C-alpha cells in the first residue's frame, strides 16, 4: 500500500516478518533523481518507525548507468518491469 512521509508518498510499502520493503515505481527509465527520492523515503521510514531492516527497490522498464551505480552504492535493488500498452 502507499505510505505517506514528509518527503511524499512511497508507492509501495510492504512487510514480510520483521522486514520492510520500500518500492518506488516509475513508468519510464529510472534516473539518479529517482534513486535519491527512494533514499529520502528510506531515511524517512528509519526516522518515523522502529524498523531497522529495510529493503529498497526501484522498479522501472530500464535504468541509467549512473542510477544503477547509485543504487549499488546504497545497497538498493533495481527491478525491471514492463507495462502493458493501454488500449
**E-strand count:** 6
Order of helices and strands: EEEEHEHE
In whole angstroms, the N-to-C terminal distance is 26 Å
Strand content: 25-35%
Averaging pLDDT over every residue, what do you get? 88
Flag low-confidence runs. Answer: none
The general outline is globular
Tell me the structural class. alpha/beta
Question: How many H/I helices?
Answer: 2
- Tell me roughly what share of residues is in helical segments: 25-40%
Largest sheet descriptor: 4 strands, mixed
Strand order, largest beta sheet: 3-4-5-6
Q: Tell me the Rg in angstroms.
A: 13 Å
How does this structure look, described?
Helix 1 runs parallel beside helix 2. The mean pLDDT is 88. The protein is of the alpha/beta class. The strands form two sheets. It has a four-stranded mixed β-sheet with strand order 3-4-5-6, with helices on one face. Strands 1-2 form a two-stranded antiparallel ribbon.
Amino acid at each position: 500500500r502507499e505510505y505517506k512521509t514528509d518527503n511524499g508518498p512511497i508507492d509501495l510499502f510492504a512487510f514480510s516478518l520483521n522486514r520492510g520493503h520500500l518500492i518506488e515505481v516509475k513508468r519510464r527509465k529510472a534516473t539518479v533523481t529517482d534513486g535519491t527520492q527512494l533514499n529520502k523515503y528510506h531515511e524517512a521510514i528509519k526516522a518515523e518507525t522502529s524498523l531497522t531492516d529495510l529493503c529498497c527497490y526501484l522498479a522501472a522498464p530500464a535504468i541509467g548507468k549512473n542510477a544503477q551505480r547509485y543504487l549499488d552504492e546504497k545497497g538498493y535493488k533495481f527491478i525491471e518491469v514492463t507495462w502493458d500498452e493501454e488500449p
